[in-house]
Amino acid sequence: MPPPADIVKVAIEWPGAYPKLMEIDQKKPLSAIIKEVCDGWSLANHEYFALQHADSSNFYITEKNRNEIKNGTILRLTTSPAQNAQQLHERIQSSSMDSKLEALKDLASLSRDVTFAQEFINLDGIFLLTQMVESGTERYQKLQKIMKPCFGDMLSFTLTAFVELMDHGIVSWDTFSVAFIKKIASFVNKSGMDTSILQRSLAILESMVLNSHDLYQKVAQEITIGQLIPHLQGTDQEIQTYTIAVINALFLKAPDDRRQEMANILAQKQLRSIILTHVIRAQRAINNEMAHQLYVLQVLTFNLLEDRMMTKMDPQDQAQRDIIFELRRIAFDAEPEPNAGSGSMEKRKSMYTRDYKKLGFINHVNPAMDFTQTPPGMLALDNMLYFAKQHQDAYIRIVLENSSREDKHECPFGRSSIELTKMLCEILKVGELPSETCNDFHPMFFTHDRSFEEFFCICIQLLNKTWKEMRATSEDFNKVMQVVKEQVMRALTTKPSSLDQFKSKLQNLSYTEILKIRQSERMNQEDFQSRPILELKEKIQPEILELIKQQRLNRLVEGTCFRKLNSRRRQDKFWYCRLSPNHKVLHYGDLEESPQGEVPHDSLQDKLPVADIKAVVTGKDCPHMKEKGALKQNKEVLELAFSILYDSNCQLNFIAPDKHEYCIWTDGLNALLGKDMLSDLTRNDLDTLLSMEIKLRLLDLENIQIPDAPPPIPKEPSNYDFVYDCN
């Protein structure tokens, strides 16, 4: 007969004694269980003891998390969190340097546990640590020459404990003094600082900036870009990552009127070229966190264009009108004419109108009206002027080439530039906040100080080339723009390392090549619409949907690693969730690091019966998306968020690592609840599998035996002389 569900068999350790095997009744109060354990070892004052996991986490068992205990779990009897916090509070104030160091080391480890952290914070532990950092370091520095390793370790453990305690969100960041901020900033500004101290100091500064407007202003006064640059020129990628994270935080929280000024400072300090040399082109792989920070910097840099993108042109503004005059002058080499009589004025207006038509503006009389639509607003005009000045030969060639045509196949430069600028802003999501989960940075945008303008210059020449290849007329304008967008998007997905490489990729994506790709995709997705085929589809669709459902559930059984997002940092916070093989229970729990392969059920502490699930919500309906905080409400995170609602006011919140995993999990959860799978992935899989199944059923397979196993892979040929390289 199986044991009752509330009885858990565990082993309990106590230093100096043999471990005990005992059964824990989950219905009994935790204090009664601890008393029973203490009585077994004849230990008095059971209220001074607690149970904790004996694994690397060492987390305390509480009434809230006791359900995590599973059969076979190894626990440890130890001093209670309150007692431990009290003892450490006293030990870190010891006059003995060795005792102090050991206490701070223990504190740094225990502070990861929220139960201990709450007790230590209740003793004003955070205040004590800040006092030690503010005033104690001077005393340590006097001893630094004779015991430098001890000083470095002591400060490192102090800052580690502080970071871990603050990460629980119990104490507000607004409570810290200017003296503490100055001290942390001094560790960053000082050269030759210990790596672990520097890393934690940068993490603290990033959190201060992201979590408090007042602290942003104070940190901005203490830290300059010039002081951060040397940390990017080292070889430690962790330090480089934290440094870029601080720069991003300062950039993100800067008032609108300060961002452009900050961008100018970054340009003066050659931040872009330093990142390109010491990070992107360094002889080592870029990890996910660094890729994310580079992506954030890329987004924030492009967002500086938003102001110009949303600024309409004032047709009465002479300075703005002069830019259009300059475009005309460069194209047609027209010298400014002196004022003349009314007859000459009419003649000049007629000439201007003719030239503006050649330049491809929609409004020939007053081309300023073309720039009153936002987006792209004045950004389009800025791009056109940059192209005309920096790539003058290409500009003149495109304008004159099209203005001399009389076969209605001319490509309108003005209209094309405006629509192209708008399209490039959409592709790069100019004006949107960076996502907390995206790592999609493009190395080529770090190779030039005016990367967006250069990007435009390459694409406007591509547009003109594609227009000619399509032999397009003005009626085909939207078709050309669609082809150009496809060319640009396909080239970007290859992640070219430079603008020249991007240009080379586009050369291979001619209109003819795009047609071939489309034709190939169309053949792969061919859809037969005759009545017999539709009836066959209807007949086999339930089988295909069941197949997709089983695949989704199998993926849930394999499980997925999710990141925990918080206001301080993204790295080193993971949790894993998977469905039990019988599809009855969801197992989940925290992980120390990103797993390699599947995580066993028994290593995941928490479980949620599928029968208890009330609903699955997505996007803005998720409880964790209704919270206010930095980077919480941006569109990309909303698209990856989903929550499981269970019991009363309980939820399990997710942010999928990507769109594919989001579709897998929302489909799988809906399938468990007996609801339809409505994701884009299901629609695509259904179309693909239906098409394949129909084609298989329509094949003439009479007297042909289909093998059960796939054929063996043939051996490699002895040489490859038969290969012909078309390029």
What does this structure look like?
The protein has 727 residues and is an alpha+beta fold. It has helices at residues 30-40, 81-91, 97-110, 114-122, 125-142, 148-166, 178-189, 195-211, 213-222, 225-232, 237-253, 256-268, 271-280, 288-302, 306-309, 318-332, 342-358, 378-390, 392-403, 413-427, 451-470, 477-492, 499-507, 511-524, 531-558, 635-640, 659-672, 680-698; strands at 7-14, 17-25, 49-53, 74-79, 560-563, 574-579, 585-591, 606-609, 613-618, 641-646, 650-655. The strands form three sheets. Strands 2-1-4-3 form a four-stranded mixed sheet. Helix 7 (178-189) crosses helix 8 (195-211), helix 11 (237-253) packs parallel to helix 14 and helix 18 packs across helix 21 (451-470). The longest helix is centred in the last third of the chain and has 28 residues, at 531-558. The radius of gyration is 33 Å and the shape is globular. It starts with 6 loop residues before the first strand and ends in a 29-residue tail after the last helix. InterPro entries: ARM-like (IPR011989), ARM-type_fold (IPR016024), ELMO_ARM (IPR024574), ELMO_dom (IPR006816), ELMO_domain-containing (IPR050868), PH-like_dom_sf (IPR011993), PH_domain (IPR001849). This is Engulfment and cell motility 1.
